[in-house]
Amino acid sequence: TGVKQIVQVCNQGERVLVGSAMHTVAVMESNNVTQGYSIVIDHEGNIAGIDTDENIRSKFSETKFSEVLDATGCSVIPGLVDAHTHPVWTGDRVHEFAMKLAGSSYMDVHKAGGGIHYTVEHTRAASENQLYQLFKNRLISMIKSGTTLVECKSGYGLDTDSELKMLHVIDQARHDTSVQIDVSSTYCGAHAVPKGSTSEEAVNDVVMNQLPAIKREIDTGKLAVENIDVFCEKGVFDVHQTRKILEEGKKIGLLVNFHGDELTDTGSGELGAELNAHAISHLEEISDVGIKAMSKSQTVAVILPTTAYILRLKSPPVRKMIEFGVPVALGSDFNPNAYCLSMPLIMHLACVNFHMTMPEALSASTINAAAALGMSGTHGSLEIGKRGNLVIINAPRWEHLVYQLGCHSDVIKAVINGGDKA
Ligand code: NIG
Ligand code: FE
Fold first, then answer.
1. What is the rounded CA–CA span in Å between residue 60 and residue 49?
2. Which among 45, 210, 256, 403 could bridge 189 via Cys, Cβ 3.0 to 4.6 Å?
3. pTM for this structure?
4. CA of 177 to the centre of ligand 2 (A)
């Protein structure tokens, strides 16, 4: 299938992208390829036209474009969406990587006071400014790899002040015009039981202190937060505690989006379906009952290929989920345990290790990932009225993005966020 060559479609108007476009329709898990298309993005940063070059040329013949981008011979996909990251922290854990390579498990390290506890210690001690600089550099790497919308979690504070500090760091990126990426913010104060507390005390602190403080800041317009997360796991927070926290979060308008069934089957799939969660992440250990429960809800399964890869865990049952009609999304899970900022690498791992097809991996990294954040109405596909977020790939077949392992700088010609080159 050759690509129709286009010299130029519009020489006037607002912003236009010319070339062959891959149009992912807004239906979960389905996408189709169209060629010889042009895309017009308006000054608000939304898609104003997506059609054949000919139709665009006649429809926008009167328009003055401020920029024209020639994508002849390239392919265009929706901007990638990373559905799960922990990007605000200081103090790397490269020493723990060595321990894990030598055979320690994730929970061995965590229980010995390392893991999340190590990161909490360093993140609590860091200033908001220090954390923002680190966060911003990570966002820039993500953008270079094609990410245009990213979910960002707090969770290395575990007390009111430090969690608020992290959420403010995340919020800052929305107002920084030097970093072009859309952000969905997640409060994850129940990411671990803080050292010196019991899990009951931690739940109490989240419900009685942290959540009310966050609500106050949201109500007074000082902060925006969209989702609530809990690490539901044996030895961390059990299903009852998880339910309690998520229900409290729901009451203040947060979307339920939590870690579950990662190292043990805790019944997280069932709990998420019952709570109408937008998303449950990990699910390496989800049972068939959990999958069936999820298939009856709208809950998206957020699959994180770096976890099983780095920790040498069993793979999540992705094929079974797809077979049962559970919408599957992908996330990098960027965190000090899994230092990966690249969605194309995640897509590659999902295809090779979890037997996803490349079109499935694309839907999982665009429209389904947007749905996991309750943002599929504005993000995740190329459609009129949606955000002008796109990745232009330097190849006539978009699959080069997945196939060319770790070569994003060669494969990605441009990343567009809200019509601007990111
Ligand atoms: O998704 N499982 C819990 N949270 C992260 C790991 C965070 C950390 O180890 O710092 C995850 O893998
Ligand atoms: Fe995580």
1. 9
2. 210
3. 0.93
4. 27
Task: Choose one of 283, 337, 339 to mutate for the ligand 1 pocket test, by most ligand atoms within 8 angstroms of C-beta.
Answer: 337
Q: List ligand 1's pocket residues with C-beta within 6 A.
A: 86, 115-116, 119, 231, 259, 262, 307, 333, 335-337
Q: What is the DSSP string of 296-358?
A: HS--EEEE-HHHHHHHTPPPP-HHHHHHTT--EEE---BSSSS----HHHHHHHHHHHH---H
From the alpha carbon of 282, which atom of ligand 1 is closest? 1
Q: Is the dihedral of CA 91, 206, 150, 116 positive or negative?
A: positive
Domains defined for the chain, CATH in brackets:
14-78+382-421 (2.30.40.10), 80-372 (3.20.20.140)
pLDDT of 17 above 70 = no
**319 alpha carbon – ligand 1 mean position (Å):** 24
* pLDDT surpasses 60 at 31: no
Q: Which atom of ligand 1 is nearest to the CA of 338?
A: 12
Interface predicted TM-score (ipTM): 0.97
